[in-house]
Amino acid sequence: MRIDLHTHSTASDGTDTPAELVHHAAAAGLDVVALTDHDTVGGHQEAIRALPRGLTLVTGAELSCRLNGVSLHMLAYLFDPAEPEFARERELVRDDRVPRAQGMVARLRELGVPVTWERVAEIAGDGAVGRPHVATALVELGVVDSVSDAFTPEWLANGGRAYVEKHELDPFEAIRLVKAAGGVTVFAHPLALKRGQCVPESAIGELAAAGLDGIEVDHMDHDGPTRARLRGLAAEHGLLTTGSSDYHGSRKSCSLGEYTTDPEIYGEIVRRAAGAFPVPGAGG
Exposure check for the chain: N or C terminus, fewer CB within 10 A? Predict the structure, then answer.
């Protein structure tokens, strides 16, 4: 089995619609794909309707969190999307995305970049607007060569010149909310230093004690020694280890299935979940 547990669609900051994403996943030879858009479940139903026979969909979301001033992302799988408290918190995070992006546009204009909110909103479309949409506008203007080049201290990286904070969950609260909704939690790319400051390794143990299920180890932003270190931390704290592409369509260079999760780990995630079940494709 080939299992990719971290992808994004146009429901957040990917460039594939949810329907396109599942068809591309099947064409890439995947058996299981998770749709984990940022702070939203808005793409799930379209993905389910379009799901090709032979491909299984894991419903999920990537949650924006902050610990001691440092941003981190928490992957949540197979939770009940209608659980009221968790749904309200996701809505709070999503609602803050627009003023945050508008603030980044304002800072860029103060820096002399002629970016407009109208263009950023057009790029985002119906998706949850975020930094990659602002970064795409910078690429269009020739300010940077690629989306990843915009995520530097000069521009949009955490603490960068045009960075604006947004409402984010406390990760311990995120774990509690996901568990209460029957879901499973995995700390996304925990040592992706190229993205900016990361929480200290000691936080992984603290999150594990609070109920964290796993950490994402095999990821494009982790080199070999980092993956080895994370496997050691996972073993030390009894955490599951996953691998994922973090696919965003054409917005990033990674491919579906570039990194995958061991079938036994996937089986354990499904076993632990009580809020939802993987959806087998019916040939949509």
Answer: N
